[in-house]
Amino acid sequence: MNTETALRDQKLTITDSVAKPDRKLALTNINVAYAAFLVGTLCGLLQVFIRNDAIQLPAWLDYYQILTAHGVLLALVFTTYFIFGFFYTGMSKTLGSFSDNVRMTSWIGFFVMTLGTIITVIMIVSGEASVLYTFYAPLQANGFFYIGLALFVVGTWISGFALIGHYVSWKKRHKGSLSPLFAFMTVTTLILWIIACLGVVATVLFQFIPLAFGWVDTINVGLSRTLFWYFGHPLVYFWLLPAYMAWYLIVPKLLGVNVFSDSLARLAFILFLLFSIPVGFHHQAVDPGIDHFWKFLQTVLTFMVIIPSLMTAFSMFAVFEISGREKGGKGLFGWFTKLPWRDVRFLSLFLAMLFFIPGGIGGIINASFQLNEVVHNTLWVVGHFHITVGAPVAMTFYGLTFWLVPYLTGRPFSRLAKKLALIQVITWSLGMFLMSTAQHVLGLLGAPRRTAFTEYGGHEAALTWFDGIFSNHVTMAVGGTILFLSAMLLIVIVVISLVGPKATEEEIVEFPLAESDPSSTPKLLEKWWVWIGIAAFLIIAAYAIPIAELLHHMESGSRGFRTW
Ligand code: HAS
């Protein structure tokens, strides 16, 4: 296919607007995401004050209860609903309106997810499940907490299969053509998610539920943690890939250029599918019961999963440079001054990328066997995930919100909203910088994570943790407070965008996706069975023997504990 035909084909598939019922579906998901965000960030604020000993909770409310709510509502609920809202919009826009079947299945998925969320939240709020978002065995919550989680995952599968069905029917109508880049990326992310969830579903159904309902007496702790991290690491790429979709597809459009390389973008996503799953042991580097060889193998695979992120960074720099030069930028860094700094919808994504530079470096440090010994289970890791999911991913989602909500409601992003958004992204960056730097420093000094306020018996080493400008809990609390205020501002912006005046005839509310030329992209990249086959091979190679060994030691399980 020549370039012209490919571009024409690509254009043909990009419909300009999303059908009203599809908008409703997407918008409902985004609204639930922001309801979870509101409560989740409030829990975050309480946490920093408790760790700082500035407030004491009433007897009926527990620190670990709030920490669980914070993790579940922000890391799982906010992200997942938002991602589905984004996917629905982009899939309907690029592949055409959903059929009644796809729409109905998506709504079923939404209701199952929401039922799961409600059950889980009730369990946390009623103090039956203060087990944090990682719900490590042998901590034991009320059985309904796990049922809620299982329903949540099943709901995402139903919605995911609906979107994959929409894609398959497009492929049938366009035999031999590569799908639009947005659809390709969505399907890759969904396949990754479906395979990843197998681990968490297995541990929830076969280990936690039987334990919690008293059908068995003990739980194999090593196995449950292994199955959790089989899921837990690809989970972070389930958050990251939609952000990368925005970077690959929206940033070039805002800069007035095309996607840098269609094949590079697709290859990066395929590499995530291959290498993001067989790496969970890097979260268990210090866990007993797993032979060092398997930890080492998964460490090597972890370094492989860094490559597609480096490809993405390269691609972004290329796009900046191409657009900068087109606008007359000169010299090595001339492009920098040509970027649209005043457009908050660009700025938000750019700041997100900037945060991912230290975020990614921190990840590489974590993944290094010996260095992990220093940072594991310290506040460093908390700092790491705040400048990965809490800034690059979250700030990209904010930038997307500034496009998506106006687009889905047909209400333009007002001047007031733009001004507030500018304050919001700057304050979020400032708060995150302060809080995450304090967390990194405190962690390096040895301050543990997953603990409420304690003076550690007044121990000399512990006292040094709180001495410096950054190494103290006050800085963390200041950062946390700025973040909370910024989060509330974001809620105001969302509300303004939901209820503001409708667009007039002249106003165009767009959702910008850049053109991507697939003419020289190898068709092999869209042969899913090849990639799913290789992913399965890598997973079996990395996990079959260690899991068999953990199963072999099944009899040495632990009874469940309720520590709160
Ligand atoms: Fe991580 C722990 C390793 C990425 C999230 N991680 C966590 C936890 C979370 C998390 C939530 O190996 C805690 C889990 C728990 O509760 O216990 N992480 C990595 C590695 C990467 C990585 C190797 N993590 C992420 C992402 C996350 C995330 C992404 C969320 C979205 N992580 C670990 C390890 C642990 C861990 C261990 C366990 C620690 C322990 O002991 O418990 C890599 O994927 C990172 C690769 C990224 C890069 C950066 C590329 C940069 C880009 C930006 C370019 C910028 C531009 C702008 C273009 C190599 C793409 C430039 C402009 C200019 C002007 C300069």
UniProtKB/TrEMBL annotation:
Keywords: Electron transport, Heme, Iron, Membrane, Metal-binding, Respiratory chain, Transmembrane, Transmembrane helix, Transport
Subcellular location: Membrane
Chain ranges passing through the membrane: 32-51, 63-87, 107-125, 145-169, 181-209, 229-251, 263-281, 301-323, 344-365, 385-408, 420-442, 474-499, 528-548
Bilayer disposition of the protein: Multi-pass membrane protein
Domain Cytochrome oxidase subunit I profile residues, every copy: 36-498
GO cellular component: membrane
Protein name as catalogued: Cytochrome C
Sequence similarity: Belongs to the heme-copper respiratory oxidase family.
SUPFAM superfamilies in the record: Cytochrome c oxidase subunit I-like
A GO biological process held by the record: aerobic respiration
Protein's organism: Halalkalibacterium halodurans
Superkingdom per UniProt: Bacteria
Gene3D superfamilies from the UniProt entry: Cytochrome c oxidase-like, subunit I domain
Keyword Kinase: no
InterPro entries, A to Z: Ba3-like_Oxidase_I (IPR033943), Cyt_c_oxase-like_su1_dom (IPR023616), Cyt_c_oxase-like_su1_sf (IPR036927), Cyt_C_Oxase_1 (IPR000883), Cyt_c_Oxase_su1_BS (IPR023615)
GO molecular function: cytochrome-c oxidase activity; heme binding
A Pfam short name: COX1
